[in-house]
Amino acid sequence: MKIFVTGATGYIGSHLVKKLSEQGHTIHALVRSLEKSKHIHFSNILFFQGDILDASSIEKAMEGCDQVYHLAAFAKVWAKDAKTFFDINVLATNHILDAAKKHKIIRVVVTSTAGVFGATLPNQTITENSVRNFDFFNEYESSKAFSESKIKDYVIDGLDVVIVSPTRVYGPYLFGQPESVTQLIEKYVLGNWRFIPGDGSKIGNYVFVEDVVLGHILAMEKGKKGHTYILGGTNHDYNTFFAKLSKISGIKRKMIYMPILFQMAFARLQLIKTWLGKEPLITPKWIAKGKYDWHVTPQKAIDELGINLTSLDEGLKKTVEWLRRR
Asked: How buried is 32 (Cβ within 10 angstroms: 0-12 exposed, 13-18 middle, 19+ buried)?
């Protein structure tokens, strides 16, 4: 089968095209730079230089394909022009879906984020049916939520689209920029990371990257048209996360709790970089997310797609072993 993929050189996308290649599919990967893709040596992958904001290059690369995975997105903490989030996460997705409709694609799987559902109130668990209780924390979340509303219009118009929404993804990376959790693990194991956000009690949902890739493929095979599937793992607070990481890595350090006020102060100092047009490490908008729990259930994906989740212990073990092999 011929499959069109965006974001093939990214963290999740590179794992996905590797898996699809191993399954014998032919992949049409749209990349902004052929130079950037030269280190990818999977079989059955054809690279097409183009841009997801250029409808014509999308249509050319998608020609002859049966399925589409759209993973490319703008997920940075800041953009010089906030409109960039909406151009790439909304307008470009519309271009992908327009091309899919034109080429009569069987199904499109679009990668969103569980962040669109918002944080959780006490004793609450986020599901695909949850109504958001908070305003959006940043432009990434709001642009993704707006994109999802536009996707529903395409579904109503007849296009078969399934949305997958990963939580905090971690694990080995092949190419691209790894998610922040993987970077945190790397800094702890190979560096000297000693900080725990807040008092360590805030809960997040952690999902192993291989489970996310399998979730994409199963969504293509078994997902219901127009449905959203949270690709999540297990819920843990920061104290538990670092205790497990310490035990599995064999590295014991005296950890320092970083109150939210100190985090905010650091983030505000980082904004000085933006005056020079440089990207900050973090912004107050992103730090604000850390005030809340993010308790999520992937039960729908388990029940309808048949995903078997990797435990945090097993996922951390695989990640630590991979880091040390590097």
From this structure: middle
pLDDT at 321: 97
Cβ–Cβ under 8 Å, residues 37 and 202: no
Mean pLDDT, residues 139-146 taken together: 97
Residues 6 or more apart in contact with residue 299 via CB below 8 angstroms: 127
Residue 230 confidence (pLDDT) above 70: yes
Is the predicted pLDDT of residue 158 greater than 90, yes or no? yes
Nearest to 58 by CA among 116, 16, 100: 100
20 Cβ neighbours under 8 A, 6+ residues apart = 3, 5, 27, 217
Which residue intervals of 250-325 are DSSP H helices? Answer: 260-275, 284-287, 299-300, 312-325
Q: Whole-model pTM? A: 0.96
Top-level class of domain 2-171+206-234+297-307: alpha beta
Q: What is the 3-state secondary structure (H, E, C) of 9-55?
A: CCHHHHHHHHHHHHCCCEEEEEECCHHHHCCCCCCCEEEEECCCCCH
pLDDT 10s digits, 177-221: 778 899 999 999 999 899 999 999 999 999 999 999 999 999 999
Give Cα separations from 189 to 137, 173, 201, 204, 215 (angstroms): 30, 15, 22, 20, 28
Q: Which of 53, 161, 142, 163 is nearest to 97 (CA)?
A: 161
pLDDT tens digit sequence for 75-93: 999 999 999 999 999 999 9
Position 184 scores a pLDDT of 95
Do 12 and 173 touch, CB atoms closer than 8 A? no
Distances in Å between the alpha carbon of 51 and those of 69, 70, 87, 241? 15, 13, 12, 38
179-200 as b/e: b if 16+ CB within 10 A: bebbebbbebbeeebeebbbeb
